[in-house]
Amino acid sequence: MNHLFYLIKELTGDNWKRLKYTFLPFPIKVKDDYIHLERVMQWLKAAYETSQGGVSSHYSLLKGKWLNPFPETTGYIIPTFFDYSNPTRDRYYRDAAIQMTDWLCSVQLDNGACMQGSYDSQKGKNKPLIFNTGQNIFGFLRTYRETKEKKYLDCAVKAGDFLTVNIDEEGVWNRYLHYNIPHTYNSRTSWALLELHSITGDEKYEKVAAANLDWVIQQQHENGWFEHANFKPNEYPNTHGIAYTLRGLLESYFITKKQAYLDAVTLTSESLLKKIETGHPLYTFWDRNWQNHGKYFPFLKGRYICLTGNIQLSIIWMKLFLKIGDKRFLAAANRLIDEVKARQNLTCKNPGIRGGIKGAFPIIGSYSFLKYPNWAAKFFADALMIRIHASGGSEPF
Fold first, then answer.
1. Are residues 31 and 76 part of one domain?
2. Eight-class DSSP state of 89
3. Which of 81, 261, 283, 294 is the most exposed place for a label (fewest CB within 10 A)?
4. 3-class DSSP state for residue 60?
5. How far, in whole angstroms, is CA 58 from its chain's centroid?
6. End of a domain among 201, 218, 235?
């Protein structure tokens, strides 16, 4: 019953904060980036230690416990652990990243794919998924770069080969998808293939990535909104899926220097920037005219924000600022980071809450309802490390 106490406490606290930020818009009070970074990495450490080799998908406030490990996000959490370990010289995070990668190798499907959903040791491996497979490549490649052990590159190649044989002639992955619909956010999968090409030199990875990224750009409207950025059928895209799409395009631009990718990211970012510059929060679901919507019911419009998507956008906009020098993107990124910092609980006695990042604010929002997802924590840690670097911070994280 102890978890009910935390459930009530978080719900009450979120509603109070929402009212306070709405009617008493004074400056947000937050602590130093290093403190917030240390806490979120401790949360990720707890999520790893409670799991079976990977990283727990999330802490459930409703159930009061950590859930099973999630292979998809474990793949892209691995680079975050290395990024934190190297400057801090904290060997724990490096060793954990390698152990996570060994676990990913052990649960990789025979065809090279990553499974859908969480891993349950009792039920075994699940069906393959394109997006998840791409995210695992990030983990395999980073650990290969750090250790030079060929077994990790071999796993990345197996994953890459699975991706190349399951794409159609138009550059669209139409099999092994969430809800069996194509997604522009597989631009992240194409980014992973470009990284694999940069190491192996195998042109098939570059060719498949280019075909998919061209398809992604074709889904963009003149106002920057993307078709097929939604996770589920008949659902509007949320900031999480939009940010996934933009990040894949942006990182692919950095690798290929193809201007169309950067232009697409800038166009969408300009539209979202206009929403932030009104002074209102950047809400979750957006239609093709950039009008905010509740997920299921009209009265939910404007009631919550996707902290996960917002912190992802802050990363994109810091990188955009560093590339094109537009200070509006830096200001917006800083605002989004500080808004998430203000909603991070630094002192709670519950390790599933302390340092974690809610999927949505308030936590009863329909994105990651009553959950602290590991990917929200991962992107928050990444954003803080990028900001520390960009500001010239010389201290270890």
1. no
2. T
3. 294
4. strand
5. 13
6. 218
